[in-house]
Recover the amino acids of this structure.
């Protein structure tokens, strides 16, 4: 009986020990689970990046209201974006000022055209077209198109095509006068100046755009008594006076006669250079002019 009682006591004690161990294990698991719940699970790097991207997108869409440094940074970024997308803010500081964009090629051309008067553009176009093709061959519309002006500008400036032709011939007169005046400045005595006029002709004849005398060409196309005849008479009177005055200064016995003879040589060399396409015609005319000078002065 004593043995059975001891056995029972041992069994009961063993059961109590097992029950206590079980309770302890249960409590331990409970505490472990509680800690796991309190501590967030670690997220894989790839998922963390995705989450950050969503967060960044959310931040970009709306700026948080904050008085801290982070809020100021977001506000500054937002303000910079608005300034870039919109107009430049008005500011007295260097950062707020922005230089105007450079003018494009078309804008520069328009600015240049605005600095040139309609009269100058029309005369430039007339000089090129009338001299190359003829005053009657070229219509008024082509001149207007090349000049880049309205038709009203031409009539307001010149009144008619005939007056435009007259202005064109006047401009040719001025260019010839300037050329000869520059040539005469290279010589000291009247004889050399007279011969220097033909040397200047030679240089003119060698230019690729030389097409003969503008006054001869225009006169051949126009009726007598018009603006072309008037402009031509003015030009030829001036040219004759240059030869006559220099002949008188050189001591010619008959300056009027010698002036006319030299003028004939001048006209003939132009015609010969144009028709024969030979610039040396001016040098032949110079030799003839030297002979006439020597005969008239001696």
């Amino acid at each position: 009986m004593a043995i059975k009682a001891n056995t029972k006591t041992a069994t009961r004690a063993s059961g109590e020990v097992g029950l206590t161990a079980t309770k302890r294990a249960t409590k331990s698991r409970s505490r472990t689970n509680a800690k796991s719940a309190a501590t967030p699970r670690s997220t894989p790097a790839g998922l963390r990046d995705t989450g950050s991207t969503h967060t960044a997108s959310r931040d970009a869409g709306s700026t948080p209201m904050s008085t801290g440094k982070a809020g100021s940074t977001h506000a500054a970024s937002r303000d910079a974006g608005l300034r870039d997308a919109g107009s430049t803010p008005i500011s007295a500081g260097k950062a707020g000022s922005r230089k105007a964009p450079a003018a494009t090629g078309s804008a520069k051309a328009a600015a240049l055209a605005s600095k040139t008067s309609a009269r100058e553009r029309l005369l430039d176009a007339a000089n090129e077209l009338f001299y190359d093709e003829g005053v009657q061959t070229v219509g008024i519309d082509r001149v207007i198109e090349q000049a880049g002006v309205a038709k009203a500008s031409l009539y307001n400036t010149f009144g008619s095509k005939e007056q435009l032709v007259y202005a064109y011939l006047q401009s040719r007169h001025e260019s010839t006068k300037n050329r000869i005046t520059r040539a005469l400045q290279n010589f000291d005595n009247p004889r050399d100046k007279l011969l220097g006029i033909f040397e200047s002709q030679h240089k003119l004849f060698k230019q690729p755009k030389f097409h003969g005398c503008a006054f001869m060409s225009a006169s051949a196309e126009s009726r007598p008594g018009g603006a072309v005849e008037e402009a031509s008479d003015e030009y030829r009177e001036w040219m004759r006076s240059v030869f006559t005055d220099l002949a008188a200064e050189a001591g010619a016995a008959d300056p009027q006669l010698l002036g006319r003879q030299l003028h004939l040589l001048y006209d003939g060399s132009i015609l010969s250079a144009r028709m024969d396409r030979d610039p040396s015609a001016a040098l032949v005319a110079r030799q003839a002019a030297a002979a006439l000078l020597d005969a008239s002065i001696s």
The CA atoms of residues 128 and 255 lie 37 Å apart. The chain is about 75% helix and 0% strand. The two ends are 185 Å apart (CA to CA). The domain at 162-297 is CATH 1.10.357.10 (Tetracycline Repressor; domain 2).
